[in-house]
Specification:
By secondary structure, this protein is an alpha+beta fold. It folds into 2 domains: 122 residues, Gcn5-related N-acetyltransferase (GNAT) (Aminopeptidase), CATH 3.40.630; 162 residues, Gcn5-related N-acetyltransferase (GNAT) (Aminopeptidase), CATH 3.40.630.30. Helix 3 packs across helix 4 and helix 6 crosses helix 9.
Amino acid sequence: MQITEVNHDEYKRLLPTVPHVFNSVEFSELNRDKASALHYLIFSDTKVRFGIILGEKADGLHSPFSAPFGGFSTIRQQRLSYMDEAVNSLKAYADGRPVHITLPPLVYDISQLSKWANVLQRHGTKQTIDLNYHFDLPLFPEYENIIERNARKNLHQALAEDLTLIPDCDIERAYDVIKANRMEHGYPLKMSLQAVKDTAGILKADFFVMTHREHDIAAAQVFHVTEGVAQVIYWGDLKEYSRLRTMNRLSHDIFAHYHGRGLKILDIGPSTENSIPNHGLCEFKESIGCSVSPKFTFTL
């Protein structure tokens, strides 16, 4: 299988559709300063089979180089033998440089991603298995029956409080609450306000604020990453109001919002880092009805 490096315009022409927004030319170009160079690679024989965008860093080539996940793009489902050929071609192209690939969580495309996991494991080494949580939105009408007893108790408390979810709110308003939440907990906030605004300019993004008696006490930032799937990039509440069980109410109302809009999955993101779990986050997400699927990282 032939591998050809092209510019971003040609890459987009040859691969007009990608499996998720993080594999798009627009997202890659927006974040190109996160890598020393970008490589747009096309894999073909009698026709174009695959593409991948790699960001070059000191420790090798990365997909993604600035996103939750990346991987190969393809116009249609491909045979396992073609996938093997593509990975062999990529290893030859890399010429000894490590290639780090993080696949989307398995729930995004269980058949194709299972094949990629098999291929990448055979040609390289598995580095991490992160646990990624999601909520199956068609289940929302039975929400109170599928959440854990303690979560149901907390939700009932929150529903009795004067809490209101405001969708489609100003980006800066939501960002300020999220920033305060991260500072209170000592968590990093990787995206600046300008980066959030710039990203919202190239993909569909939603911003929510939850209020209590006109005070902003919780917020969420959500990106639409592929058809029928949105992903929570950030969400959180202020410690002062956690007694109101704000996160139980925020998650419930956001699930209701996206169920009402006909989406299939709300991706809540991982609760592990380099395979190491945050047990509290895992337990909370499971208590509110989320399911888990693996997110694999491989090195070739």
